[in-house]
């Protein structure tokens, strides 16, 4: 009888250690994700500030763009192609996303009216 209880106690201890290790692993992954998102947030903020500065002073933006074109023409052309492809993709996807959003908001409205009735 005690051997069965001892086995159960050992199994319980092993499971507790395993769950603790898994919690630590999830915590570590969470820190990595948080750090990655921090860099993404920083990049987004910088892009927003640069965009706002270019809107206030378009000549500065044009000068920077001209400098990039003169110094790194291949990279600028490659970036331009990528930007054009992204814009074309957005032009195709935007109506679909709008349609899905309208459907979802329509469902929410009908759900709300059903609940009030």
Present the secondary structure layout.
Layout: H1 2-56, H2 58-71, H3 73-116
Helix pairs in contact: 1-2, 2-3
Description:
This protein has 117 residues and is an all-alpha fold. Helix 1 packs across helix 2 and helix 2 packs across helix 3 (73-116). It is elongated. The longest helix is centred in the N-terminal third of the chain and has 55 residues, at 2-56. The protein has helices spanning 2-56, 58-71, 73-116. It contains 3 helices and no strands.
- Work out the helix count: 3
Determine the mean pLDDT.
85
Total strand count, please? 0
Percent range for β-strand residues: under 5%
Helix content: over 70%
Structural class based on helices, strands and sheet pairing:
mainly alpha
Q: What is the chain-wise order of helices and strands? A: HHH
What's the story with the biggest beta sheet? none
The backbone outline, from C-alpha atoms, is elongated
First and last CA, distance: 62 Å
Radius of gyration: 28 Å
- Poorly predicted regions: none
């Amino acid at each position: 009888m005690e051997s069965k209880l001892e086995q159960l106690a050992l199994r319980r201890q092993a499971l507790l250690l395993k769950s603790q290790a898994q919690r630590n692993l999830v915590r570590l992954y969470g820190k990595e994700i948080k750090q990655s998102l921090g860099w993404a947030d920083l990049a987004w903020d910088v892009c927003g500030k640069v965009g706002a500065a270019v809107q206030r002073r378009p000549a500065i933006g044009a000068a920077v763009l001209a400098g990039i074109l003169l110094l790194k023409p291949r990279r600028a052309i490659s970036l331009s192609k990528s930007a054009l492809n992204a814009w074309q993709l957005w032009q195709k996807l935007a109506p679909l996303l709008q349609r899905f959003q309208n459907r979802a908001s329509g469902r929410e409205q009908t759900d709300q009216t059903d609940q009030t009735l």
